[in-house]
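In this section we walk through a basic example: taking a raw amino acid sequence and producing a predicted 3D structure, encoded as C-alpha cells. The instruction is simple. Fold the sequence below.
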Amino acid sequence: MTYGGRRRSGAKSMLAVKRTLALVAALAAAGGLACAFPQQASALAAKAPSKLVPHRAIYEMTLDGARSASGITGIDGRMVFEFTGSPCDGYSLNMRMVTQMTDTQGQTNLTDLRSSTWEQGDGKKFRFQSAQYLNDKLGDVTMGRAVRADPSETVKVNLSQPSRAELDLSGQVFFPTQHSIALIEKAVSGQSLFQARIYDGSEKGRKVYETTAFIGTVVKPGADETKLEAPAKEKKLGELPSWPVSIGYFEPKNGDLTPSYQIDFRLYENGVSRELLIDYGDFSIQGTLTSLEYLQAKDCR
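The resulting C-alpha cell sequence is shown next.
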C-alpha cells in the first residue's frame, strides 16, 4: 500500500474515533429528563436530576472487523473521559482517545484525540476545543463557542480556530447534553425512535449532523448481571435499567438513506455506557469498559 493509502485510512479512522468520542461524551452527561420541543430545547439541561452521575470511564478500543478495502488489519487503543458538573455549574467533559492502527503492509499510525467541552446548565451556551495528533504531530485544532439566542432559538457560533468564523444555525439544534437528555427520556417512556440535529463542535466546528436513534426494549435490572465487566459489576450497573441504542449519523441534505457511520451501545439510566461499537462501513471499532469511577457530585445551592 502506498503512503497515500495509509493516510486515507488514518484520516477515515480519525474521523470515526472523533465521532465515537462525541457520542459517548454526550451519553455520559445525560440524565433521565423530559424531552422538549424545539422552542423548549434551551431548558432541558436545567432540569437535570440528582441521579446524574459524574464519573471517569476507561474503554479498551479494538478492531471489531474490517473489509479489505479499508486497508486496516488492526486497531488497539484506549479511550478515557471524565464527566463532572451540575445543572447550576454546567457540564464539563474532558476526553482523550489514543489508538494505534496497523495497515495491510504492517505499517502503524498513532492517532490521538484530545477534547474538552462545557455546556451551560440551561442549554444556552456551549464551549468546545479539540486537538488531533497523527504520529505525534499536531494536526487539526478546533476551538469555539455557541450561544442559543432567545427567542428565535437560533444558535450563533463563533469559531476562533482553525480560523475565525461566525455561523448561524437555524431550526432545532441540540447540544450534546441536551440530545442525551432527550434520548434517555425517550428510552424511559418506551419510545423506539428519535431523530435530531446535533451540534457538538466537531468537523472544525462547521457541521450539524442529522441523526436517527433506534432504542431497543428495556433490559430490566439484574437481567444481564453475568455479562457485565468487572468494573460494571463493582459499580452495580446491573441494578439499573438499560437500553440497547443505535444511532446513525447522516450527512445533511444529501438524501442518502445509509448513514455515514453508526454507533451502537448499551445506555444505562444514570448516563453510563458500555458495549460500544462504531461501524464506519468498511471497518468497525469495539469499546470495552475496563474502569469506572464515580466522582463526587456537587449539589446546586
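Looking at the output, two observations stand out. Residues 130 and 181 are 23 Å apart (CA to CA). Confidence is low (pLDDT under 50) at residues 1-10, 13-50. In the next section we compare this with other chains.
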